[in-house]
Design a protein that fits this description.
Elements lengths: L1 E3 L17 E3 L1 E3 L4 E3 L4 E2 L13 E5 L5 E6 L4 E5 L2 E4 L15 E5 L2 E5 L6 E4 L7 E2 H8 L1 E2 L7 E5 L2 E7 L2 E7 L7 E2 L7 E4 L7 E4 L4 E6 L2 E9 L3 E8 L11 E3 L2 E6 L2 E6 L2 E4 L6 H7 L9 E5 L4 E6 L11 E8 L4 E16 L5 H7 L20 E7 L4 E3 L7 E4 L3 E2 L6 E10 L4 E7 L7 E2 L11 E7 L1 E8 L8 E10 L4
Parallel strand pairs: 14-18
Antiparallel strand pairs: 1-41, 2-34, 3-4, 5-33, 6-7, 7-8, 8-9, 10-11, 11-12, 12-13, 15-16, 16-17, 17-19, 20-21, 21-22, 22-23, 24-25, 25-26, 26-27, 28-29, 29-30, 30-31, 31-32, 32-33, 34-40, 35-40, 36-39, 36-41, 37-38, 37-40
Length: 494
């Protein structure tokens, strides 16, 4: 009897769950689960000294990569695995709950945290960040909005929001001109958002953009003329409850609202977490540290990922301990146990033998596969700042994977005697059987059984309700986990 590892649905009961009851340290692919690899730091002893509060990775017009990380009192630039401070003479003095937004506008990277005056870095030219107002004073005109929290690039405009003393205000630069902030000049202007949608917490970029308020979502379309942007409310009563839960892959946008996880696709707001993971996440999230949630998209594997602090994590250093993973092609979820301070999309640079020496003294000990894109220039990778505040990527050895089937009667109305389990996994795996005779009973778990030479895990367990738990040891080399093949005989009725 074959039982597949179906869709992970922790919000559903164990008994007759339509899918898997456990899916840890894996992600869903089209017809199987695949392994999550651990983080590998590649910065030697270099770190950002404290919890990351935002990060961004960008390429200039020569394909040179620039990666920046913000903390509550500094901005760092990552070069060949080494962090160096680039805040220059700028003031960086955020609090524990303040985070940076990094936005690329042509050759410029704009950094803002809502606490200090916004800053800019010109890729290929700058040594350190400088205040954006200094650029405007030097070559432009007008006054930059003071201390804006979030920004994005919509068409050819830098669009900012959540401005000091105007949390619902949106302001944008001149057309293709980051140095112009004079209302009416080169289409630069401001707009206060009406209603009670709350403060602006995020802005997406593209041919059009979405402005996320706490309880409202507004679409911005460039129309030109005196109007410049058309503001269209697409969600009057739902927004992003935490700003850093918004992530984007081109026109697909994902976010977490007060009532769960959603995706915007063609202005349709689709519930992707309802009756699947919403209750699980709400119960597992450590709500004292929601400001530490970060989100990013892994476009190569079509994954939207949220790094969050769980209720079991003491969070003494601000490090999160879990990833909630959504495959937006298969529309399936999973979870992983990973400790990190930040996740973000990162461009990697052409890495050399010199950088190999930074990662490891011995070629055999390098955990990052030489076949991965880490060793090529300009590939977009899912990066992180790990628990030691070092630069890292998810290219290490596989984590211990755990999958569990739904609970069901093997022979309806009868007890069953299970004698063997064959995991449909291309690796050696350990199996335990969980049984109970009544749904009100405490679940009994068998001893762990290892796989023999024939690919069978011998077990002896009797009961009425069964589920099989499969663990693939850490550092195993495998690609697909699909389910189990169960051998059982009928018992008597009870």
């Amino acid at each position: 009897m074959q039982l597949p590892f179906g869709e992970w649905l922790p919000d559903q009961p164990d008994h007759l769950n339509p899918g898997a009851t456990v899916a840890t340290n894996v992600y869903h692919a089209q017809s199987s689960y695949k392994p999550v690899k651990g983080l590998v730091a590649y910065g030697g002893t270099s770190n950002v000294t404290q919890n990351a509060k935002g990060a961004g990775s960008f390429r200039d017009n020569t394909n040179t990569v620039f990666t920046f990380v913000g903390t509550k009192d500094n901005i760092y630039k990552l070069t060949s695995g080494t962090f160096s401070s680039v805040k220059g003479s700028c003031t960086v003095s955020g609090g524990d709950t303040d985070y940076f937004t990094f936005t690329q506008f042509g050759q410029y990277v704009v950094a803002s945290n809502g606490v200090n005056p916004p800053m800019y870095y010109e890729m290929g030219t700058s040594t350190n960040f400088a205040t954006l107002q200094s650029l405007v004073t030097s070559i432009g005109q007008g006054t930059v909005p003071s201390k804006f929290k979030v920004s994005g690039v919509i068409r050819d405009f830098l669009v900012t929001a959540n401005i000091e003393n105007a949390k619902n205000r949106v302001a944008w630069s001149g057309l293709n001109d980051i140095s112009t902030w004079e209302a009416g000049v080169s289409s630069s202007d401001t707009q206060d958002l009406p209603g009670s949608g709350g403060q602006v917490v995020a802005i997406t970029s593209g041919e059009f953009g979405y402005v996320f308020r706490e309880d409202q979502i507004i679409r911005l379309d460039f129309v030109g003329g005196n109007v410049v942007f058309r503001f269209s409310v697409i969600s009057p009563n739902r927004g992003a409850v935490y700003g850093q839960t918004v992530c984007q892959d081109n026109r697909q946008v994902f976010f977490y609202a007060s009532d769960g996880f959603f995706q915007i696709n063609g202005d349709q707001i689709l519930p992707i977490g309802a009756e699947k993971v919403n209750r699980f996440f709400d119960g597992d999230l450590n709500k004292a540290y929601t400001d530490r949630i970060t989100a990013a998209v892994d476009p190569f594997n079509t994954l939207a990922i949220w790094l969050y602090p769980s209720k079991d994590n003491p969070n003494t250093t601000g490090v999160c301990d879990k990833l909630l993973i959504y495959n937006y092609v298969t529309q399936k979820w999973s979870v992983a146990k990973v400790k990190a301070s930040q996740i973000f999309k990162q461009f990697v640079v052409a890495n050399t033998v010199e950088l190999m020496d930074i990662i490891s003294e011995n070629l055999e000990d390098i955990n990052i596969s030489l076949d991965t894109a880490f060793w090529t220039t300009g590939h977009l990778y899912l990066g992180a700042i790990d628990e030691n505040f070092k630069a890292a990527i998810f290219s290490g050895k596989t984590l211990e994977a755990e999958l569990e089937t739904k609970e069901q009667e093997i022979f309806p109305g009868l007890r069953a005697n299970v004698t063997g389990i064959r995991p449909i996994v291309d690796a050696s795996a350990n199996v335990t059987i969980k049984t109970r005779d009544k749904l009100a009973d405490t679940v009994t778990t068998s001893a762990s059984s290892s796989m023999n030479d024939t690919g069978i895990n011998p077990v002896r367990q009797s009961g009425r309700y069964f589920r099989a738990n499969v663990k693939i040891p850490a550092e195993s080399i495998w690609t697909n986990a699909q389910g189990i093949d169960l051998t059982a005989s009928q018992g008597g009725s009870r």
